[in-house]
Amino acid sequence: MSTADWIVELPVAHRGYHDMNKSVWENTLAAFERAAEAGFAIECDIQLSSDSVPMVFHDHDLQRLCGLTGEVRERTASELGLLSVGGTSERIPTLKKMLSLVRGRVPLVIELKGIDAEQDDGFVESVLEVLEGYEGKVALMSFDYHLLRALKLAGCPYPVGLTAMGDKPEEFAAHQEAMALGLDFISYYVAHLPNAFITEQQNKGVRIITWTVRDEIARAQTYKYAEQMTFEGFDPRESQPAA
User: What pTM, to 2 d.p., does this model score?
Assistant: First the structure.
C-alpha cells in the first residue's frame, strides 16, 4: 500500500498559494508557482472538460471565477483554456500544464471534484493517465465515495485520501465506509475536530491533515488534533503554531 507519511511534512497551500483572489487567484499557475517558490505543498482541484481532459478548477460552474454562466463540463479543454480567471491574465490550466510547472519541486495533493458515478465515468482514468511518469510526490483525494472506489479499483499507485467533514454519528458511518476501501489519509474540516471518527483513524495510524485553516485558532486546533494543515490567507512561516 502506498505510504502517505510525507503528506504531513509541509503546510499545504489551499488551491495554491493565492492571496484570497486579490491579485493571485486560486488554482492558477501563478498561485502554484508562488507555492513552489515558498516551499509549500500544493492542494488543487480537478474538474473534467467535456472532452475528458483534467482541468484545474474548483467549482462545477464558471460564474464565481470567470464571471460566465454554464458548467465546466459543458466546454472543451481548449475552450476552458481561453477563459480568464478573475479577470487576470491567468487562464484555466490543465492538470498537465500544472505538472509541467511544478516539476516535482513540492508535493501535490489533488482533489477530484465529482458529480455522480455515471457522469464521472472515466474521470479517474483520465487523471491517472496524465499523472503517469510524473516525478514528484502526489496524493489523490475526494469527498466522493464512487471516485475513491474507482481509484482503488484502478490500482492507483499514489496515496488515496478521504476529504470530509461532519460531527454526527451518521456522518462518521459514511466516512468509515469510505475508509474501508483501504485509504491512506484524511483531509478533515478543522472546525469539526476533535471527534470520535478521527481519533479512531489516528489510532489506526492514518495520517490526518485539516482544511481550511485561515487563522491562529484553526492552526492551533490542527496541531492539537491532527498533523498538518491546508491553509490560505496567511504565511505559515511568519510565526510558530500556537501551543
Answer: 0.96
